[in-house]
Design a protein that fits this description.
Distance between the termini: 64 Å
Order of helices and strands: HHEEEEEHEHEHEHEEHEHEEEHEEHEEE
Bound molecules: flavin-adenine dinucleotide, FE2/S2 (inorganic) cluster
Structural class: alpha/beta
Helix content: 25-40%
CATH superfamily of the largest domain: Translation factors
Shape: globular
Oligomer: single chain
Radius of gyration: 22 Å
Strand order of the largest sheet: 4-3-6-1-2-5
Length: about 400
């Protein structure tokens, strides 16, 4: 009994703390402080965030809540579904990873991110094990094209999420319910087991209060007593839920394996590509298994990269040795002595922020990446999804 009361007191204190943060931060009065300030507010080059809370969402996922670390700099607004890049320096290596914003875009006071541990992952393990309440961390502005577009997407939306791929959909659902948007939403959420269903309580609550939101959890490794759907998100399961693909718009978020599988299912249902939008979480675990990878090149192979870049106004030429199976951007960042800073956002080939001039040599680019024609014509690559197959020469000063 005493324990229960203490828990309630703690919950109350937490809610009070959140309420105080919300009440203190108001949307900036854009119309009072001019266009330049508006642009800077929407597209700040970088933001400084301070961790205010860390909560456990599952055994391998935590929720991080951040406020702006600068009193006179409110957080940049975002569209539900977008992500920010968290920029970290870990043991001398400066890098970043994108994370979808979980919080509602209607809250100006804080951002929330749900970070899942990746086995041997460089940044996710750092965030989960070393980031503490009070720490300050750099971040990009909100980025990404995965958000609701009322002109093109219509009124019937199908969200397909795998594991931590649920995060942008939580923000989108929060926005839909807060604004009472007249949209029909079907969420198909694939997880391993019941324990892996992130935000289940909130999702169940939304479903029970909103007849326009239908949610199906599909577990690939459920316990024997699970009485929901089992297996993978197949075309039959999709049709069971949504009845027909006609007039529906599909959003897919998850890892590469899940995406390829869902894309096949949607092809079989004759869903046109222009009725889908997707976000892939990170590079493949093993690029040598990707279709088109040259079979004679293995994880043991390395090549030389000749890098040109500008430092203190002078053009520098350096040579480094890198693995063929690591994304070039990671290898360049890992070369601590060069202290290269390469602009990046999505690290999955979508945003083009990392575009880099390839002077010579051959790279393998992940097949699903769509380069702009102009970039291809002039020999630009996206190092976040490029793997060097031969010695290569790149010039970072020509981006
Ligand atoms: C738009 C977007 C939104 C995202 N949102 C979320 C989110 O909301 N929540 C979430 O948990 N995740 C999210 N992710 C994934 C997240 O950005 C990271 O990819 C994830 O946390 C793993 O990062 P890591 O640094 O721990 O792993 P990494 O260290 O980057 O490892 C990932 C893979 O990189 C390869 N790799 C790395 N180093 C090497 C090397 N030395 N040699 C060979 N291969 C190597 C391996 O294949 C490895 O499996 C999102 C990704 C994108 C693109
Ligand atoms: S960081 Fe977005 S394409 Fe490379």
């Amino acid at each position: 009994m005493e324990k229960e009361i203490m828990n309630d007191v703690k919950k109350y204190q937490k809610l009070e703390k959140l309420k105080k943060i919300r009440d203190e931060v108001q949307p900036i009065p854009w119309y009072f402080d001019g266009l330049e300030s508006l642009c800077d507010r929407i597209h700040p080059e970088k933001q400084l965030l301070q961790v205010t809370d860390i909560e456990e969402l599952s055994k391998d996922t935590k929720l991080f809540r951040f406020i702006s670390a600068k009193a006179n700099k409110p957080l940049a607004p975002f569209r539900a579904g977008q992500y920010i890049g968290l920029i970290v320096e870990i043991d001398g290596v400066r890098t970043s990873r994108p994370f979808s914003l979980v919080s509602s875009p209607n809250l100006y006071a804080y951002y929330e991110l749900g970070v899942k541990r990746k086995e041997n992952g460089f940044v996710s393990n750092y965030l989960l094990d070393r980031l503490k309440v009070g720490d300050i961390i750099e971040a990009t502005e909100p980025l990404g094209e995965l958000y609701y577009n009322q002109i093109f997407h219509g009124k019937n939306l199908v969200f397909i999420a795998g594991g931590s791929g649920i995060t942008p959909f939580i923000s989108m659902l929060r926005n839909i319910t807060e604004h009472n948007l007249k949209l029909n939403v079907w969420l198909l959420f694939g997880c391993l087991s019941e324990e892996d269903i992130l935000f289940k309580k909130e999702l169940d609550d939304i479903q029970s209060r909103r007849p326009n939101v239908k949610i199906q959890y599909i577990l690939s490794e459920p316990r024997a007593d699970w009485n929901g759907a089992r297996g993978f998100i197949t075309k039959d399961k999709i049709l069971d839920e949504i009845n027909t693909v006609k007039d529906k718009f599909f959003y897919i978020v998850g890892n590469r394996a899940m995406y390829s599988f869902i894309q096949e299912q949607l092809n079989e249902l004759n869903v046109p590509k222009f009725r889908t939008i997707f976000e892939l979480y990170g590079v493949p675990d093993d690029v040598t298994e990707v279709i088109g990878w040259p079979k004679n090149i293995t994880a043991l192979d390395s090549v030389k990269v000749f890098v040109d870049f500008i430092q203190q106004g002078k053009k520098i030429h350096e040579t480094i040795e890198v693995s063929c199976t690591e994304p070039l951007l990671n290898s360049l960042e890992r070369e601590k002595s060069l202290r290269l800073i390469i602009n990046n956002g999505c690290r999955s080939g979508a945003c083009a922020l990392c575009r880099t001039k390839l002077i010579s040599g051959t790279i393998f680019m992940l097949p699903e990446v769509k380069m702009r024609e102009i970039d291809q014509e002039f020999g630009f690559i996206h190092p976040c999804v490029s793997y060097p197959l031969t010695d290569i020469h790149i010039d970072l000063s020509l981006a």
